[in-house]
Each structure stands twice: as C-alpha cells, then as structure tokens.
Amino acid sequence: MTVKPIKKLVKYNKAETRTAWLCLLPSVIGLVCITYLPMIASFALSLFNWDGLGEMQYKGLHNYVKLFTSDTKFYSSLWVTLKYSFMSVTLSIVYSMMIALLLNRKIPARSFFRAIFYLPYVLPAMAVYLGWKWLYDFNHGFLNYIVRLLGFAPVKFLDSSTLVTPSLAFIAVWLSGNLIVIFLAGLQNVPRTYHEAAEIDGANAWQRFWKITIPCMTPIIFYNLLMSLVSNLQVITPALSLTKGGPGTGSYYMCFMLYQQAFKSHKYGYGSAVAVVLFILIAIFTAILFATSKGWIFYEGDDKE
Amino acid sequence: MIFAFNNSSRLASRRKREKAANFLSMAVLVVLGAIVMFPIYWIFRSSLMSNGELYAYPPAFTPPNWRFSNYRDTLEVFEYWKFLGNTMTILVPSVIGAVITATMGGYAFARLRFRGKKILFMLCVGSMLLPSMVTLIPLFVVWAKIGLVNTYWPLILPHFCGGGAFNIFLIRQFVKTVPRELDEAATIDGCGYFRILVYIIMPAIKSAMIVVGLLKFIELWNDLLQQVTYITRRDQYTLALGLNIFKGSFNDDWSSIMCATCLSFIPGIVFYLIGQKYFVEGIVMTGMKN
C-alpha cells in the first residue's frame, strides 16, 4: 500500500514575511542593481560600439569576432591570465596548507605565528606592491643582492616577460594568509578519534595524513581552490599598481585589458566583450571544479560506494 | 602486567616522537615566519636610511643611522593625513553600511520563514561565484549618467546593499548558532521580529559583526580598482592613489617612498591587532560550511 505524501501546507506569517523582506531589502537591491542587472548589461553592451558619449552602434558579435580573430593582444592577455592564476593558485594552496599543518601542531606561541603569517594579507595592496618593487629592484633590491651572492648576474624580476609572472605570483603567495586561517579552521575540525583509531591499527604519520587528514579536508580544499581561482582570474591590482600590463604583454591580464579598453580608450563595448569572455572563462573553470568535485570530495557521514 | 608495560613504553616512544616532530615544526615555522616577515622588515629598514646608504653595496641589514627624521621630511611632501582622511571618509560609512545590512540579511535568511527564501538564498550565494569585474563597466556608466563620478558615492553606496553575499552568509551561520529558545522566550514576552533582531540576536553575534566589519575594511582598503575608476581629482585621493602618485613623482627616492609605504601599512596593522581574536573566530565559523 502506498501512502500519498501529505502536501506540506506552510502558512507564512504575515508579520514575519514583512519583516523578512524589509530586512532583505538592501540585499535584494544589491543583488539586482549591483550584481545581476549589470551583468546582463555587460552582455548587452558587448554587442555595441560605444565611446561613452556619442550614439551607441549595434554591431552584433563584431566585438567578439575582433577579439578572437584580429586582436593578438587578447590571446596574450588570456594566456598570461591563465598562467598567473595557475601559478598563484597552486602555490598559495600548497603553501597555506603546509603552514596550516605546521600551525595545527601543539607548539608554543601558536597565535603569534598565526598572526605573522596572516599579517601580509591585511596590508594595503598598493603599499605592498610598492614595497615589493623595491625588493625586486634591479640595481639595489634585496633579492638581486641574494642573486649576486649566489654568483649569478642580477635579474630583472619585473621587467622580463618570463619572470614577471612568477615574481607577481610569489607576492600573491606571500599575501595568502587568509587561506591559512581557513585551512587551520578546517584542520581543527578533523576528528581526533580518526587519527587515534588509525594509529592503533598501525598507520604511520604519512599514511594518516593521506588517508585521514586530506580526505577530511577536501571540502575546505575545494572551497579555497574555487574562491582563489575566481579571484585570481580577476587579477588586476599588480598590473594597476606596478607593471601597467608590461613588460610587453607580460602582465596584460584580462581585467587590465578590460580596464584599459573601457576607461583609457573609451571603448565600452569592446571592454564589455572582454568582461563577457572572462565571465565565461570563470564559469567554465567553476563548472569543471564542481563537476569533478563529486569524485574527490569526502563529506562526513556520506556513505560512498 | 607485561601487556601494561609494553603499552606504556610504546606510549613513551610515541610521546618522544611527537615531541621531536613538534620541535621540528616549530623550527620550520620560525624559519618561514622570518622569511615572511623579512620583506616588511626590509621596507621598514629602508625607510630609515638615506638614499646614499640604500644604494651602497653590499646593503646594510640594519640602518647605519636610524634616520627617523626621514618620516618628518616625507610627511612634508606626502599628504598622508589628508589621504588617510579621504580613505576613512570612504571606509567608515561603507563598513558601517555593510555590517548593518549584512546583519539584517543574515538574520532574515537564518530565522525568518517567507515565500521565495530558497531561491533568494541561492541567488545570494551564487553571486559569490560571479566575477565582480563583469559589473564594472555598466556600473560606471550608470554612475557617470547620474553625474556622481568623482564623488565618493559610487564607492560608499554599494556597501549599503547587503555588504556582499559572503558577509550575509557569514552572519547567517552565526545567527543559526543562537538558540531558538531565546527568540521564542522573547516572542512570548511580546517582542516582534525586529526587536528580536536588535535585542536578542545582535548582542549574541557581536563578534560576527566585528568580523564582517574587519573583512570589509581589508577588502576596501585593498580595492585599488574601484578607487582608480571613480576618483580622478587629486584632492579626493585615497592613500593608495596618493601613494601611486607619490611613487611617480619621487621615482628613485626609495627612502621617501619606503617611508610613505610604511606609513600606509600602519592603519592596517593597527586594525588587525585590534581585531585579531575575532578574525580567527569568524573564519572558523564559516570555513566549515562548504
């Protein structure tokens, strides 16, 4: 005999609904007016040619055709953005996971160390990049002092198209204190009993790390990976503050291209087309991450297989 | 007996190993911590030296003469207080707006039942993944149309609209930890939903509100792009923009540039020291909830 599920009849309290919408009013306005509508507007704007003052000219997909067929700078931009993101995301994740593992041990002055590794994150970006410009300076920078001590010729860290990406990614790693704190919070939630049980069964530290710590941390790793990928693909600050897109197209990131096209060359339509491509790029990466996540994310209490 | 003995010796060796491992981690942390702190030290050290001393080879690891007067000289040409004042004029209202509206939003999502909540919440969380860069041009166009470019409004007003999905989400997680019995007791005493928020929820999630404020502060403090986009008049420059111009006009005067850099570090460090305890607490709360 089958019992029909009783349709849930939720009566919404009027006063409750009214308060809820009142409380959410600012957020709804924000979501509509500064997130979703402008996003749609970007798509629309990318179909036009517009200098911000004169008539808007409808051009269909012309801007995209131009991007993909005749603008060589666009491909460089795509490439350096991907290169930078890949480098800074992987290195920051590995670095911050490692620091978090070390900080998770029973060591004295733990909060002091945590503060040290977090500190770069709270410094203002412009000042950070200026400081690093000095450290990277060709003639008098500290890093070139080390390079010379090791017996090599000084290096153009920011003025060589091969080195600019690793140099800027290195700063990004240095700034990744927020990832450390999130990893640390995750580590503290890994049940101790799992480790104890595995130890009784004779698992060594290495095995426990790969079979317990890492699986329990996969949701956090996923979160950090996703969030830093989304934010790194939108990299612009180092180009704005330091390298101005150069040398050559060495740091001509997509967001920087968008910014230049829209606000320096006053090609709002073309800039919007870059924005839309960036949007699609990020959507693809997000989709890939989500699609593969089922295979490698372990949720507690989730009986897989 | 034998069993017990075995066990305790195993325990002792395990303790020993753990101690060694802890010592090793400590050593690695000390080294890495020194490396992470070194750039900041180097910048500070450079700010206390003359350009002649900076250009010497090999470089001095501590300033030969501690020239604190560098700061006085730099403050004469670098309009630090004005830039800091401008920055705060943007930051303070933005942070307050974000905290208040995020708290209201988070409360509604955590506690109140209403039609459309699920969809709205999904739209809200989903917007975290949307690249904010994509909204830059249309928003600028609209602000320009209203004629508010070159004012602080485009930098402040958006933060009165929920303060960002992440912050709403963070507040929601915190509100969920407040026992519902408190709300119910207040309802029996005749409190409406709004008064519950103000008198029950807000005192209980004070630390979360501080975290939101601090995170917002850092976010805006670092947000060079918005400032570059909307502010072009020199008298409205923020610290970041001022620093950028300063670098341009004092090209090779690294001593002064490093002074200005250190001066810009200070507010960030002060705010961090004040809020350190809350930071960790706040992130522990959100990091978990996939």
List key phrases describing it.
heterodimer; A: 305 residues; mainly alpha; MetI-like fold; two-stranded antiparallel ribbon; globular; B: mainly alpha; 2 domains
Question: Any chance you could write out the topology, listing elements then pairs?
Answer:
The complex is a heterodimer of chains A (305) and B (290).
Chain A (H helix, E strand, L loop, with lengths): L13 H32 L2 E2 L7 E2 L3 H8 L2 H32 L6 H13 L2 H11 L6 H8 L14 H11 L2 H12 L3 H9 L4 H29 L3 H7 L10 H11 L3 H29 L9
Antiparallel strand pairs in A: 1-2
Helix pairs in contact in A: 3-7, 3-8, 3-10, 4-8, 5-11, 8-10, 9-10, 10-13, 12-13
Chain B lengths: L1 H46 L3 H4 L14 H9 L2 H32 L5 H10 L9 H11 L6 H4 L8 H13 L2 H9 L4 H12 L1 H17 L1 H7 L8 H11 L4 H34 L3
Helix pairs in contact in B: 1-14, 3-14, 4-8, 4-11, 4-13, 9-10, 11-14, 13-14
Overall description:
The complex is a heterodimer of chains A (305) and B (290). Chain A has 305 residues and is mostly helical. Chain A has a single domain, classed as Orthogonal Bundle (MetI-like fold). Chain A contains 13 helices and two strands, in the order H-E-E-H-H-H-H-H-H-H-H-H-H-H-H. Chain A has helices spanning 14-45, 62-69, 72-103, 110-122, 125-135, 142-149, 164-174, 177-188, 192-200, 205-233, 237-243, 254-264, 268-296; strands at residues 48-49, 57-58. Chain A has a two-stranded antiparallel ribbon with strand order 1-2. In chain A, helix 9 (192-200) runs antiparallel to helix 10. The longest helix of chain A is centred in the first third of the chain and has 32 residues, at 14-45. Chain A is globular, with a radius of gyration of 25 Å. Chain A starts with 13 loop residues before the first helix and ends in a 9-residue tail after the last helix. In chain A, 42% of the residues are buried. Chain B has 290 residues and is mainly alpha-helical. Chain B has two domains: 2-69, no CATH class; 73-287, Orthogonal Bundle (MetI-like fold), CATH 1.10.3720. Chain B is built from 14 helices and no strands. Chain B has helices at 2-47, 51-54, 69-77, 80-111, 117-126, 136-146, 153-156, 165-177, 180-188, 193-204, 206-222, 224-230, 239-249, 254-287. In chain B, helix 4 crosses helix 11 and helix 11 runs antiparallel to helix 14. The longest helix of chain B has 46 residues, at 2-47. The radius of gyration of chain B is 26 Å and the shape is flat.
